[in-house]
Amino acid sequence: MEKFFKQSVKEALNFYVYALVDPRDKKIFYVGKGSGDRVFQHAEDSLNENDESLKLSTIRNIHSANMEVEYYIIRHNLSEHEAYLVESTIIDLLTYEAFNRENILTNLVKGHHQWNEGIKTEEEINILYDCKKIEPIPGDKLLLVSLNKTYKQSKAKGIYRRADDYESARKYWKLSDAKAHQVQYVLGIYRGIVRIVIKVNTCTKTSIGENGEIYNPPRYIFEGDIQSDSPYLNKDVSDYPFGSGGEKTYIPRDMSYWSSKKEQ
């Protein structure tokens, strides 16, 4: 039976933050924000959509056990911005690895602005607001890619919806063949700071994105290993600007280190 709030309840709730709870173990498996009947919409989606997301799969499994999702309104009568902040704080608390060894949420992304405004150690606060400038190691060929369109997954759309920072940084980049095959490290940059470093193992070209978008000319996808102890991680790269609307730049900037062929 479809659930809904009466109009008077909707008006009293305004924007709110809610939790979906699995009745089988009484654990929260999803945290969200919304207004009106948003809290109930996921259960309806699980009946009508073919989406195989973990969230909807969990709801279907609950229904298969002849049980119903339990709904909790955590905070209500909020502005949209307040709901945004409360939601992100709760998600951070439930997913932060130092506090939770097991990620119990099925949310696609972690809390909004988690890096910028989320839970931080003392060291991370200093990294964020007093980070050192990058010191490129002589001989390293670095591709710097902008994560501005993918880092905030709550606002990302289409091809910019990605599972994590690795997926955001490794694809889809318009590069010349000569340059692409020389890249040793891909550095994902958000707000002028290196957020992820990938040591490149292989690179391949594709003419179509995972959402069906066609690329002409083809674009590059990198495969590699995340370098959590890289000297480049959390460093300021403001000395290597992308330029207006740019999505990539290179270190070193001296073109003698790279192919002189034009970008394809």
Give an overview of the whole structure.
With about 260 residues, the protein is an alpha+beta fold. It folds into two domains: about 5-95, GIY-YIG endonuclease; about 130-260, no CATH class. The chain has eight helices and eight strands; from the N terminus they run αββααβαααβααββββ. The protein has helices at about 5-15, 40-50, 55-65, 80-95, 115, 120-130, 165-170, 175-180; strands spanning about 15-20, 25-35, 70-80, 140-145, 185-190, 195-210, 215-225, 250. It has a five-stranded mixed sheet with strand order 7-6-5-4-8. The longest helix is centred in the first third of the chain and has 16 residues, at about 80-95. The protein is elongated and about 70 Å long. The N and C termini lie far apart (about 55 Å). The relative contact order is 0.12. The model is unreliable at about 260-264 (pLDDT under 50). This is Endonuclease. Keywords: Endonuclease, Hydrolase, Nuclease. One of its GO terms (molecular function) is endonuclease activity.
Unreliable sequence segments: 260-264
Alpha carbon gyration radius: 22 Å
Q: Pairing-aware structural class of the strands and helices?
A: alpha+beta
Mean pLDDT: 81
Strand order of the largest sheet: 7-6-5-4-8
Q: How do the SSEs run, as a string of H and E? A: HEEHHEHHHEHHEEEE
Number of strands: 8
Q: What is the total domain count?
A: 2
Top keywords for this entry?
alpha+beta; GIY-YIG endonuclease; 8 helices; five-stranded mixed β-sheet; 264 residues; single chain
Give a short summary of the structure.
Residues 13-101 form the GIY-YIG domain. The chain is of the alpha+beta class.
